[in-house]
Every structure is written in C-alpha cells, then in structure tokens.
C-alpha cells in the first residue's frame, strides 16, 4: 500500500513567534510533537544566520529538542550528501520567508529538490511562510503591485517547487491589499485556484483537503466558471474585466475541497461525518 504524502502547512507570513505560537505548534504536532525533528531551511533569506537563530529559539521554546537549520548560498551546497542526510533525518521541514525566486533558483532540479519531494511523499511535514508559502505551488507569484485593480501587468509569475498542484498562492494577503494581483494571476491561469493567505494564518493541506487555522482568513479565488474575460483583448497595462469569478472567505474552522472546488463551512463537522462514513 502506498504511503500518504505528508501535510503541507502553508503560512501567510508574520506568524506568531512570541505568544502562543499556535501555527508553529500545530506544525510541530503534525511532525511528531515532542519527538519531532525540525529542519529550518533559510535559503529564501539574505540573513540566514539571524533568521535561523530566531526559529531555533522559537521551536525550542515550544518544546522541540531537535531543531537544526540549513542554508544554501550556491547550488553546489544543494547537491551535497550532508544536505540530503539532514532532509532524510527530519520529520518537519520549514521554509522561512525572503525571496521565493532564491528558493527555485538555488534548489530547483538539485538533489535537495528531489530529496524534499521524496520526504514529502513518505509523510514528512512541509511548511513554509511568506516566500516559503508562495513557492509551494507549481506556478508561483514572484512579484506584483498591491492595492490596485486587476491588470495583466501587475503580477509576475514563474515555476514554483511543485508541492501543491492546481493552486497559486499569495501571502500577507489582506494586510498588503493583494486581491487585485491574485485576480490577475487566476485570470491568466483559470485552471488554478487562487489562495490568498492573511498574516498569522495558515492552511493545512492533506489529501487535497484544505483546513484554515490562525488569526486571519484565507481568500480563495475560483475563475473556473468565469463567464466573460477580456484578457485576450486588453494590453498588459489595461484593466481586466472578469465576470462570474467566485470568491470564498474562510476563517479558522472552515476548509475547502481543492479537487471539487467546494468550501467546507464547518471543518470539524465535515471531518466527523467523513470518519463515520469510512
């Protein structure tokens, strides 16, 4: 029997690191609790020592005894045997924030890239915040304008690390006014769902089912049933017309069926019914 892939914990950035640390605690619980072996990957940031030290302190404060950091400043390091060994020993792997293009540029196609996918497939928990969230999808947002109306030119896209298919992820969502650029992204990739994750908010994805946890909400943009779009007729700097887009606002306690494109208003009730029927 094939093993089930591990959960993805995708965080919208600015997760609580000084209070209850609910999101990070949940991440650790999924990976073994007090027996978890956490690997923090700092490749996205230009301050790996400082950021790594901060996360070591946080994870130790919430009870993790085995927490390590791993940085990659050049692609040779992403092909080293020692890097593969660290990934193979971890039960939880967490990507920090920074620049998502650094992640794909330095890890894409390397032995570390392959080892991360192998780890996920055998059940290891993968988490990421901010840039570490955006890179989870097969197509990612790398840059764009905020607080403006949808236009093709306001969002730049690139291949991601392909841990989550069928979605485009944006982070710091409500706090930085990024609905326009997410709409622009899904207008160009309507087969993808747009996930806009607020700060100190996360989605846990298991078996194509999404659960929302944290202080804010997750905005899900579904362009699958768009009845009209002028994308093929406007210049890149002109405004987009989109009719029939669905927008779901999901705070903690809600969920979403990614394959069926259906919201779950009460996740615990849905889970209970699923367990009774299995």
TrEMBL record:
Transmembrane segments: none annotated. Exopeptidase that catalyzes the hydrolytic cleavage of multi-L-arginyl-poly-L-aspartic acid (cyanophycin; a water-insoluble reserve polymer) into aspartate-arginine dipeptides. It is an enzyme of class 3 (hydrolase). It comes from the Bacteria. GO terms for molecular function: peptidyl-dipeptidase activity; serine-type peptidase activity. Its EC number is 3.4.15.6. The active site is at residues 130, 172, 199. The keyword ATP-binding does not apply. Keywords: Hydrolase, Protease, Serine protease. It catalyses: [L-4-(L-arginin-2-N-yl)aspartate](n) + H2O = [L-4-(L-arginin-2-N-yl)aspartate](n-1) + L-4-(L-arginin-2-N-yl)aspartate. Belongs to the peptidase S51 family. This is Cyanophycinase. InterPro entries: Class_I_gatase-like, Peptidase_S51, Peptidase_S51_cyanophycinase. The lineage of its organism: Bacteria, Bacillati, Bacillota, Bacilli, Bacillales. One of its GO terms (biological process) is proteolysis. It comes from Alicyclobacillus hesperidum.
């Amino acid at each position: 029997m094939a093993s089930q892939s591990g959960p993805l914990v995708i965080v919208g950035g600015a997760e609580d690191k000084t209070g209850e640390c609910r999101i990070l605690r949940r991440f650790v619980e999924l990976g073994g609790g007090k027996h978890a072996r956490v690997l923090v990957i700092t490749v996205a940031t230009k301050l790996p020592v400082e950021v790594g030290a901060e996360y070591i302190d946080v994870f130790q404060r919430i009870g993790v005894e085995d927490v390590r950091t791993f940085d990659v400043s050049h692609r040779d390091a992403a092909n080293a045997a020692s890097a593969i060994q660290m990934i193979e020993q971890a039960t939880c792997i967490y990507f920090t924030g920074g620049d998502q293009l650094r992640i794909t540029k330095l890890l894409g196609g390397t032995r570390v890239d392959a080892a991360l996918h192998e780890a996920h497939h055998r059940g290891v928990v993968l988490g990421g915040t901010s840039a570490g969230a955006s890179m989870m999808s097969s197509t990612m947002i790398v840059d764009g304008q905020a607080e403006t109306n949808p236009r093709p030119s306001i969002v730049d896209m690139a291949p991601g690390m392909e841990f989550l298919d069928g979605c485009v992820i944006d982070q710091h969502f409500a706090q930085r006014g990024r609905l326009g650029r997410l709409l622009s992204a899904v207008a160009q990739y309507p087969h993808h769902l747009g996930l806009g994750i607020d700060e100190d908010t996360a989605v846990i994805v298991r078996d194509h089912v999404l659960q929302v946890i944290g202080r804010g909400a997750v905005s899900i943009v579904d362009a699958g049933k768009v009845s009209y779009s002028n994308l093929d007729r406007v210049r890149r700097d002109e405004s987009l017309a989109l009719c029939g887009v669905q927008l779901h606002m999901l705070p903690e306690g809600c969920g979403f069926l990614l394959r069926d494109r259906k919201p779950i208003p009460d996740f615990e009730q849905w889970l209970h019914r699923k367990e009774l029927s299995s």
